[in-house]
Amino acid sequence: MVRHPRPKVVVSECLGFRPTRYDGNIIYDETVEVLKKFADLIPVCPEVGIGLGIPRNPLVLTRNGDDVCLVDTKTGEDFSRRMNGFAHSFIADLKDVDGFLMKSKSPSCGVGDAKVYGKGWAVVGRSDGIFTKLMREAFPLLPIESEKRLLKYEIRRNFFTKIFSIADLRETLSGARLRELVEFHRRNKYVLMLYSPHLLKKLGRLVAERDQREQQELKREYGRAFLEALSRNPGRGSYANVFMHLYSHVKENLVEKERKYILALIEGYRMRRVLLKTLIAYFRGFIYRLGNEYLAEQRFIDPYPEELEQMREDE
Ligand code: SF4
């Protein structure tokens, strides 16, 4: 079984930590509650961080020429500069971080879905909240999701795979021995194949050249390319490609009927008739049954703790 590291994840504080909402409320979120057991969460409320009280007037994003500003709906006061200053000092204090889980729709924390208002309070677009935007600029290769988007299985699997793999990378690169990097690369082969077959090859070459390279430079280059690979989002074709590779590893141990069934499932997934969750559960089942240690230890098969896999689906 794969050992799972503890990712460090920045989380909007109103998601189950403290009643910091403008109306004094707190939001219960199942993902955050389960994640508390397996990750080190770093709660932050940017609006409280810039000195606003609880409760307070609601804020909104408004378009002002090319700029988007964070303003008080009642007084019209612009808090954009204060938020900028707070975000930069927050970033400076942040030691290690593997991802961000932010509150949807908020003008400060939203992830692509905060309303932007124009003249006469007409909605002229949607964007990241102002704090989230600054985090994205500072950490362009790290995963950022909202609690609402994580209700969808494929988005949730992607996010969890990324934060646990990035935490594993962080721990591996902080170790003294290059042997650990070789093991890391081995167990992440299919995760890398999923996100970027091109970078899988590049990273394989880096690991193979380890004896000829300066150690710190090699680790830096490997870490950067790994994050770059995981900053992408795979489509169905990428998943189907990985499943076909896994299948080719085990087909000799399967009976004819089972082979046909698996190929039909992969094709069904490609054609949107089979769910990703179903296909993954099926592959895990027969990989464990066949006792294939190499595949059972792959992060693609076991990317994060099982309890996170068994969460409620969005209807
Ligand atoms: S959404 Fe963000 S700014 Fe608003 S209360 Fe939650 S943590 Fe604070």
How would you describe this structure in keywords?
binds iron/sulfur cluster; 8 strands; 4-stranded parallel beta sheet; 2 domains; 12% strand; single chain; 315 residues; 50% helix; 4-stranded mixed beta sheet; alpha/beta
Shape by Cα distribution: globular
Number of alpha- plus pi-helical segments: 14
The small molecules bound here are: iron/sulfur cluster
Element pattern in H and E: EHEHEEHEEEHEHHHHHHHHHH
Instruction: Summarize model confidence as the mean pLDDT.
Output: 95
Structural class determined from secondary elements: alpha/beta
Strands, count: 8
The domain count comes to 2
Distance from N terminus to C terminus (CA atoms, Å) equals 31 Å
Q: Identify low-pLDDT runs.
A: none
Could you tell me the strand content as a percent range? Answer: 5-15%
Overview of the structural elements:
- The protein is α/β, with parallel strands linked by helices.
- It has two domains: 8-151, no CATH class; 157-315, no CATH class.
- Helices cover 50% and strands 12% of the residues.
- The protein has helices at 30-38, 46-49, 80-93, 130-138, 153-174, 178-187, 189-195, 197-208, 215-230, 236-250, 256-270, 276-290, 293-296, 306-309, and strands at residues 8-12, 40-44, 59-64, 67-72, 99-102, 114-117, 123-127, 144-146.
- The strands form two sheets. A four-stranded parallel β-sheet has the order 2-1-5-8. Strands 4-3-6-7 form a four-stranded mixed β-sheet, with no helix packed on it.
- Strand 1, helix 1 (30-38) and strand 2 (40-44) form a beta-alpha-beta unit.
- Helix 5 packs antiparallel against helix 9 (215-230) and helix 7 (189-195) packs antiparallel against helix 10.
- It is globular and about 70 Å long.
- The mean pLDDT is 95.
- Bound molecules: iron/sulfur cluster.
- Iron/sulfur cluster (SF4) is lined by residues 12-14, 20-21, 45-47, 103, 106, 108-109.
